[in-house]
Amino acid sequence: MNMAATTATRPGLDELVTGISGIVARRLRPRETAYAVADLLRDRLPGPGLLTPQEREGSPDGYVSRVLHAQEDFSIVTVVWRPGQYTVIHDHVSWCAFGILSGIEHETLYRDMGDHLVEIGRADNRPGEVSGFAPPGDIHMVRNTSDEIGISVHVYGADVGRLGSSVRRVYDLPVR
């Protein structure tokens, strides 16, 4: 994964920052915050124009995460995936809400059984779809299964710019 930061003004970003700031200020429980931010994204999901044409190309070396906004209590990140690119199995440091702008993010969910993982679900997240989640129970792997470049917007309840990543743990356990 490549992590790139940027400070450029982007269409719709200021509106998202304002809306998310208002939700985070309510100090809801993590899962409630994720769902409220997902509702906001459903109403205000930006288009691929949030990124420059060059940023929308991604990288042949792996998916690219780009921090568009980071502050102490939340970050807005875009992820660009070329066809077939995927994450390792991982979980997150905080709640998350995400929306799909293009491509299909195929998500496989797992449960940690201590010495192995068990697959507990799968979902194909398509353009315009939005969801949210919060730890625990957020162990997953994501893959762009479409023939086009995938772009998604993720909002995390942490300063990803400071942390360097939203990933808390990577899982290298067998899947049974």
Brief overview, please?
The protein is of the alpha+beta class and 176 residues long. The chain contains three helices and eleven strands. It has one domain: Jelly Rolls, CATH 2.60.120.
Order of helices and strands: EHHEEEEEEEEEHE
Number of domains: 1
Number of E-state strands: 11
| Unreliable spans | 2-8
Hey, roughly how much beta strand do the residues contain? 35-45%
3D shape? globular
Distance between the amino and carboxyl termini = 26 Å
Tell me the CATH architecture.
Sandwich
- How would you sum up the major sheet? 6 strands, mixed
Strand order of the largest sheet: 1-2-3-10-5-8
Give the C-alpha Rg. 15 Å
Q: Please write the CATH class name.
A: Mainly Beta
Broad structural category: alpha+beta
Classified in CATH, the superfamily is Jelly Rolls
Helix content: 10-25%
Mean pLDDT: 93
Task: Quote the CATH topology.
Answer: Jelly Rolls
Write a structural description.
This protein is an alpha+beta fold and 176 residues long. It has one domain: Jelly Rolls (Sandwich), CATH 2.60.120.10. Helix 1 runs antiparallel to helix 2. Helices cover 18% and strands 38% of the residues. The strands form 3 sheets. Strands 1-2-3-10-5-8 form a 6-stranded mixed sheet.
Topology record:
Blueprint: E1 2-5, H1 13-25, H2 30-44, E2 64-71, E3 74-81, E4 90-92, E5 96-102, E6 105-112, E7 117-125, E8 130-133, E9 140-144, E10 150-156, H3 160-163, E11 167-170
Helix pairs in contact: 1-2
